[in-house]
Structure formats: structure tokens, C-alpha cells
Amino acid sequence: MLVIAVSGLKGGIGKSTVSLNLAAALHAAGQRVLVVDADTQGTLRRWAEVAAESGGDGPPVVALAGGALRRDLRRVAEGFDLVVIDGPLRLGTETRAAMLVADLVLLPIVPGPADVWALGATLDLLEEVRSLRPELRAAIVLNRADRTTLTSITRTTVGAVDVPVLSASLGARVAYGEATASGHGVVSYAPDDRAAIEVRALLREVTELLSEEAHDEEEHPRGRVRPAAVAS
Questions:
Q1: How many structural domains does the chain have?
Q2: By CB count within 10 A, which of 52, 77, 137, 190 is most buried?
Q3: Residue 228, domain member (yes or no)
Q4: Does some domain include residue 226?
Q5: What would the pLDDT profile of 24-56 be if each residue is shown by its tens digit?
Q6: Would you call 18 exposed, middle or buried from its count of C-beta atoms within 10 A (0-12, 13-18, 19+)?
Q7: Closest Cα to residue 139, out of 109, 112, 180?
Q8: In-domain check, residue 165
Q9: Continuous segment of H or E residues that includes residue 205
Q10: pLDDT digits (tens, 9 = 90+) for 90-139
């Protein structure tokens, strides 16, 4: 299976927003998606509970972290095409474990100097993991982005690091919070809203990265079973 880990050191960067909306969009596109809530805050678990209470159709959510994540993920996720991990807020063994089992690491940041500075520590850990798994892909996602100079400066600044910044970004939109509170992803909650358009654009870029990963696996197999290609 293909595994996406959404990671970052700093709180408030939108890990859960990216994780749940990406997972919900993949689920809506017909992919068999498992969400792993590795964050002690349990945002994704609560989201799944709300969805179940309201009869919503969303991907299943399980709690796994640290050693259990590395030891049990393949067994727990058997039969799924994709896994989306909402990583913990802190660095160390928990975040490292999520990166070690991932095929793609997404690093959300909010425009501003504090998030850029915090990103540096996350990138250090990423490089450590890549010393063990050099094939690991990663990308930066701007969250709560707008058309201000601060967003432009942030995109330029992080664009200088050795991790690509995705063209798609998520804005500061009410629809994200409303969708989460109702147990939905924004694509199903408000399909014509600008937020849903943003998530679909993010999904297209992530799909391209995963397709490249699957192609590389076919060219240089590492003994892991891969699913069918991710739907575009």
C-alpha cells in the first residue's frame, strides 16, 4: 500500500485539516483509504465519531503511534490502497516512526516566520530518516495561505530548501471548520466551495507524486506489494 504521513513540529499548522480532507477526497474518489490518528489530541478519531453519529460516509480511522505504527501498520492496513497518517505535534520517535513507514511526507506550514523557523527542525529529522530511506519523497503544503505579501515571502523562503513546495495550497476558509465539525471532508460538504477546489488541486498533485512513487517501485522493487494506480 502507499502511505502518506502528514508531519510537522509546530502546532496549529493544519496537519489534521490536510490529513482529513485529503483522506476524505481519496475516499470519495473510490480509493480504499485508512486514516491513522497518531496524534494524542485525537482530532481525526473525534471526526470519525461525529461522522458515524451523523451517518456520514468517510474512511475508517484507527489509532496507532510509535513502535505500534511501525510494527502493526501493514497488518492493520491490509486490504487498503492508501494510508493517511495524521502525525503527532512533537518530533522524536513518534514523528520519526511515521516518516519511516511513509512513501510520501507532507509538511504543512502557515505563512509566517514562526512556521518557517519550526520547519527547519522537521527538515532535519526528514534528512535523518532519508539517510535510512533515501527514496522517501516529501513536499511542503501551504495552509491558511492568501494573496498577501507574507504568503508570497513564505513561499519564496521555503522554496529555497531541498523539499518542493506544492503549487496547491489551502486557504483560511470557514468551510474547512464547518466540514470537520459535521464529520465530513470539505469536498463532500461543500463541493462547489473554493475550499473544495483547493483540496481537489492538492489531491491532483499528491496523486502525481504517488504515481511517481509507484512507478519507481516497479522499476526498483523493494519487496513491498503496491496497489493499483491512484485515481486522478
A1: 1
A2: 77
A3: no
A4: no
A5: 999 999 999 999 999 888 999 999 999 999 888
A6: buried
A7: 109
A8: yes
A9: helix 194-219
A10: 667 888 889 999 999 999 988 888 888 888 888 889 999 999 999 999 99
| 141 contacts 106 by C-beta, under 8 angstroms | yes
**Residue 148 grid cell:** 498577501
Cell matching residue 72:
502493526
Domain range holding 56?
Answer: 2-219
Dig out the grid coordinates for 35 from the structure. 486514516
Q: What is the dihedral of CA 45, 48, 52, 57, to 10 degrees?
A: -160
Residue 119 to residue 10: CA distance in whole angstroms: 8
Question: Largest alpha-carbon pair distance within the chain?
Answer: 47
pLDDT value at residue 232: 36
Residue 92 lies in a domain: yes
C-alpha cell at 215: 512507478
Question: For residue 19, what is the domain's CATH number?
Answer: 3.40.50.300
